[in-house]
Amino acid sequence: MPKIDWRPSAPLAHLRRRARIVAEIRAYFAEHDVLEVETPQLCPRTVTDPHLQSIRVPGYGYLQTSPEYAMKRLLASGSGSIYQIARVFRADEVGRLHNPEFTMLEWYRVGFTPDRLIDEVAAIARIALGEIGIVCRSYRDLFRTHFGLDPLSCSLDSLRSAARQQLDLAFDDADRDTWLELLMSQVIEPRLGIGELCFVLDYPPSQAALARLHADADGQAVASRFELYYRGVELANGYHELLDADEQGARFAADLRERELLGLPAVLPDERLHAALAHGLPDCSGVALGLDRLIMLAVGADSLREVMAFPVSHL
Nearest 5°: phi and psi at 121? Predict the structure, then answer.
């Protein structure tokens, strides 16, 4: 009989440190009067985002990629500021920084601007990482610095040319957001947050997802969202939440058109979320933070398997 390795992949010292960090995060939210909630991880509907692949459970629906939709229904019901430490699921995500099942810390602060939420995200990150500085950079500024291009107005050919110069590509035909994402993820991201927390602000409108839009310092429309990076690792994604139910419906429809063009499985938009938005979501900002990644960086590990007891490779 072959020998079976039944032990956890993470050292027990890392799991103890993980438990302490989680306890301190809960204590922070309790002190700041943010309600802890629980929402279902198995639901009839899922996200329409073509860049997120849900795991389908026949006869029941989908394992959720995030607790966002259900948490927004609570917000619309008058819950006030809320947080959740949730197990979430994404298909086809396995690697040093990915596991199909992982832990997400997601929270929503009623009345918070993105700037105020950034300060709180930094406070949460410091619970795990200790005292560390912050820098904020705009998405446009990063592309101008690294490629001499304005990502909001440059031509598709310019983006394609920059990608060819920087990367070994096996394809030549892609849409604008694909080239932007390649340049961001493969060239810029690994250089962010070296020695400090780096918040990237004001993404292109096409990448707004569930965030509202605003005008930047140059009067250009940008998405009111931010991402946090540390040591080249993406840790968090935050939004000034979209309140307009009609606009959200239009974005769902655009997602479905893109899914069809990409040959992805058809999904139905979550009508209960749309109804909650139509009822009225309070002015709020929200953020999702990858808790496993934060703990990985806190303990000096190189992969998630060092801070998860049983990643997919150990099941």
Answer: -60, -40
